[in-house]
Here is the input.
Amino acid sequence: MTILTTLENAGLISRTAQSIRSVVESHFGDLLTMPINPPSAFVDTMYLRYKNLPNGVQNNNLNGKVFELLIAIALYRSGIRPLYQQAIISYVPNVEFDFTAFCDDESIISISTKTSFRERWKQADLEALALKSVHRKAKCYLVSYEVPDAKGVQKKILNGGAMGLDQSMSAVTSDFDALVASFNKKTFIRPPIVPLMKSAQLSSI
Here is the structure.
């Protein structure tokens, strides 16, 4: 079975994402078999491999997609399942979350990934706030590749400069490993289907 077929079966890569599929097929056949632990070391090793590919194979348009895929696989390899990508949550309009997981205690975990933040962390903060306005027990994390970016936003979180985010971290540090370890203590479930209407008396036909 090819790496693409395996990733498709696990729901980790889209059949229509041709650019990233080409890179994975040519250069990342060992994504699920390479014995690299902990998760931060896996992300760091694989993303550096990607960044060292020739120009034209790796490019700015692919950076974020590859990083997001590596985060998904790092979580998958760590047993974090079921995990949903590009999720749209009921009653949270106009927001698509990079990663979402639902816990058996009715809480929700969301992870926003960006190779670097600059001012884009503000968007993630607003999205986290929107989620928490509906799901009070939600926990929202921002994950970057760049360590300085992650530390800068984490300071803002601790100083009250962010309204919705719970934690910011780099995926290539022990903070990410600690986050994954905390996930391993939870039980994740498939989310219930929310009906449009619980009950009502039909007034007209």
In short: The chain has two domains: 3-77, 84-189.
